[in-house]
Design a protein that fits this description.
InterPro entries: Biofilm_reg_signaling (IPR052155), EAL_dom (IPR001633), EAL_sf (IPR035919), GGDEF_dom (IPR000160), Nucleotide_cyclase (IPR029787), PAS (IPR000014), PAS-assoc_C (IPR000700), PAS-like_dom_sf (IPR035965). Residues 221-274 form the PAC domain. Residues 17-89 form the PAS domain. The protein is rod-shaped, with a radius of gyration of 51 Å. α12 runs antiparallel to α13 and α19 runs parallel beside α20 (580-595). The chain is of the alpha/beta class. It has four domains: 7-134, Beta-Lactamase, CATH 3.30.450; 157-267, 2-Layer Sandwich (Beta-Lactamase), CATH 3.30.450; 281-459, 2-Layer Sandwich (Alpha-Beta Plaits); 469-704, EAL domain (TIM Barrel), CATH 3.20.20.450. The termini are far apart. An eight-stranded mixed barrel has the order 18-19-20-21-22-23-24-25, surrounded by four helices. A five-stranded antiparallel sheet has the order 2-1-5-4-3. The protein is built from 26 helices and 25 strands.
Length: 704
């Protein structure tokens, strides 16, 4: 810009000498001033020039511009411009120059020039330099930042937008079209149109965040949403924005923001959450998520007063499938089990896999009272047992398993979540010891109560093959015709070609366990009645089950969890164990049971070697039917066998007593205990109890 000062005034030498002028120029702060002749020789080097360019005055004065801060070529061109300006009597245009300090650094300055003619006619040019180095650096930084921002926006899938609230105008950056998968001419041009682009499920949430931002909240707007239409419908996006300008009334007038595609991050977050909270094989919740939901269910129950439950399940027979058919088949089986379990429960319940073949079902808000809660849980437990007892068809093979279930109840947050799982786990192992394919409550009081109520209702758990044991009861009487006990045997169509009745030999091991389990439930039921509580209940046990190393432990557990006296249970064992290995295994188990107080009865006494009695403890001996039949009821051998039993301090029991005459002969021979058709055919549980109570002079309704 040209000065308005007159040429005459501007070019007139001041009314003081040169030294005074230079001293005055030295006092001007912030401006580096030099004076030089038209050939570029410096005659004045101000104090600020020393600071800016690093040359001391003593070295600068007398040197050419091209020797100091200006390269020779640049100095020659500059001086040419100066000479032309002087010749024309005009101004030297100011400008920005990049000069060089003594230490080699670049110095950016804004230079303005003027010239004065001394009284002797000599012309001096004065240069006034303002340091722009910091400003130039800032400008360059801003340019670099803008280039970086443009690059980042182009490569990161983000786009900038501006919203002018007065007329609802929305201006998108150039990356928006590719970001949203829309043609440029279809991009929203107002915030109203932008909201219409968002999925309906997210729209109100976005409106709420925008309203809060415009209402004066200082925090930046940040919201995520999905697109509702276009090529990228369903993809997740994130917007971050802030109010940039406000009008005179303080209302937002300009909002600027940035939008980014965060769909991959959402997918990654979902994958991480899945790994953290779900079992990768079955896609069921894992232990971590189960505990979180259990704590939530406890808190919910505390407010509502409704009870919940934890069911801990372990698969019976899974190891055989996994080991025999391979882990791939085992994995398929676990997935199929997961599907069946989920189908058995409500949508609000949780089915989780803890690992291996262990599953947990969390039941929320089951019922208000304990009784109603237990009834519903027991119904579900039976349903689960039946669901998993059905065969699994995996490829070409059909596989049979079952499940054992431990149950723990909760109301509110009184119990630690981990403690509830441990309680259910302990109940699970009691269920396994009770014969498997069944359930057990953690609380023994509930177990006794609901075992009895189920028996009264006729509810029995199915075996893995789908068969339900139907027990028949055969009374046992003493010489005075008083009922002292009964033998319980399973009557199952299809087993060994017909019904398995009393005295027909050992049942399949799985069925024997079921029969034992039910027998213990029945004994628990009888404890409430003084007449029935005196009875001994006998169950036949085969060599295969006796050879199981855990059999004695399982029986003890069955008795213990029902708080039963061991002497009320009698196990009938076939004394004809001629195989030494089987005899040894049976001996170990029988001795353990006898030590715990369980009665043991041996069959075939009188026809098997007496040496068996030295190795198998017994509380009762079943007389061989060759001694007790009608023809032999008064034989010397029978008398000797009964006398031998008495000498050993054990009961003698005669089976298959069919008539009063035969019973009288047995009584004459020594009066053993007797069982058989004389006392009726096998009865159902209810019929047997009615019969016993009637003989005692009482009726069932009186007993209740």
């Amino acid at each position: 810009m040209k000065s308005t000062v007159s040429t005459h005034a501007r070019h007139t030498w001041p009314a003081f000498d040169e030294a005074a002028l230079f001293a005055l120029l030295d006092c001007i702060p912030g401006t580096a001033i030099q004076a030089y002749t038209p050939d570029g020789t410096l005659v004045f080097w101000g104090a600020q020039s020393e600071t800016l360019y690093g040359w001391p005055r003593s070295e600068a004065v007398g040197r050419k511009l091209g020797e100091l801060f200006m390269p020779p070529e640049q100095a020659a061109a500059f001086m040419g411009d100066v000479i032309r300006a002087l010749a024309q009597g005009g101004d030297i245009e100011p400008g920005v120059f990049s000069l060089q300090a003594r230490d080699g650094r670049t110095v950016s300055v804004y230079s303005s020039h003027t010239w004065l003619r001394k009284p002797d006619g000599q012309v001096l040019l004065f240069c006034m330099d303002t340091d722009l180095t910091t400003l130039e650096a800032a400008r360059q930084d801003a340019q670099r930042a803008r280039r970086r921002l443009d690059f980042l926006l182009q490569t990161s899938g983000e786009s900038v937008w501006e919203w002018y609230t007065a007329d609802d105008a929305l201006v998108h950056g150039p990356q928006a079209a590719s970001l949203f998968g829309l043609p440029a001419d279809q991009l929203p041009v107002s915030m109203h149109e932008q909201l219409e682009l968002i999925a309906e499920a997210d729209r109100e949430r976005v409106r709420g965040v925008q309203a809060a931002c415009l209402a004066g909240e200082e925090r930046p707007l940040r919201v995520e949403y999905r697109l509702g239409r276009g090529e990228y419908a369903g993809r997740w996006f994130e917007e971050r924005a802030h109010v940039i300008e406000r009008d005179a009334a303080g209302q937002p007038s300009l909002v600027m923001g940035i939008v980014a595609d965060v769909d991959e991050r959402h997918r990654a977050d979902d994958a991480i959450r899945t790994l953290a909270y779900y079992d990768p094989l079955t896609k069921l919740p894992n232990r971590r998520l189960l505990l979180e939901r259990l704590q939530h269910a406890q808190a919910l129950g505390e407010r509502s007063g409704l009870r919940g439950a934890v069911l801990f399940l372990d698969l019976d027979g899974f190891k055989a499938v996994n080991d025999g058919y391979g882990h791939a088949t085992g994995d398929l089986l676990l997935q199929a089990v997961a599907t069946r379990l989920v189908a058995c429960v409500r949508a609000s319940d949780t089915v989780a896999r803890l690992g291996g073949d262990e599953f947990v079902i969390l039941l929320e808000q089951v019922a208000e009272g304990e009784a109603k809660t237990c009834e519903r849980i027991v119904a579900l437990a039976d349903k689960l047992c039946q669901a998993l007892a059905s065969a699994f068809q995996l490829g070409e093979h059909s596989h049979q398993i079952s499940t054992s279930i431990g149950i723990s109840l909760f109301l509110g947050s009184h119990e630690d979540a981990n403690a509830l799982l441990e309680q259910a786990d302990r109940a699970l192992y009691r269920a396994k010891h009770a014969g498997r394919n069944t359930w057990r409550f953690h609380c023994e009081r509930l177990q006794r109560r609901f075992s009895r109520s189920l028996l009264q209702a006729g509810s029995l758990t199915a075996r893995p093959d789908g068969v339900v044991p139907d027990l028949a009861f055969y009374p046992r009487a003493n010489a005075r015709l008083e009922v002292v006990g009964a033998t319980a045997a399973a009557a199952l169509p299809g087993i060994r070609g017909g019904a398995t009745g009393f005295g027909q030999g050992a049942q399949p091991p799985g069925l024997e366990r079921q029969t034992l389990q039910l027998a213990c439930d029945i004994l628990a039921r009888w404890q409430a009645d003084p007449v029935l509580a005196r009875l001994v209940l006998s169950v036949e046990v085969g060599a295969a089950l006796l050879s199981d190393a855990g059999f004695a432990r399982d029986v003890t557990a069955m008795l213990g969890e029902r708080d039963l006296a061991a002497t009320n249970l009698e196990l009938v064992v076939d004394a004809d164990l001629t195989d030494d290995a089987r005899l040894q295994a049976a001996r170990t188990q029988v001795r353990r049971l006898a030590d715990d107080g369980v009665r043991v009865a041996l069959t075939g006494f009188g026809a098997t070697p007496l040496t068996v009695l030295d190795r198998l403890p017994a509380h009762a001996l079943y007389l061989d039917e060759t001694l007790t039949g009608c023809l032999g009821a008064s034989s010397p051998a029978l008398r000797a066998a009964i006398a031998c039993a008495r000498a050993l301090g054990v009961d003698a029991v005669a089976r298959n007593v069919q008539s009063a005459r035969q019973f009288q002969r047995l009584r004459d021979a020594g009066g053993p205990l007797a069982e058989g058709p004389l006392f009726g055919q096998g009865r159902t549980l209810d019929a047997f109890e009615h019969w016993v109570l009637a003989r005692s002079g009482r009726h069932r309704d009186e007993a209740a």
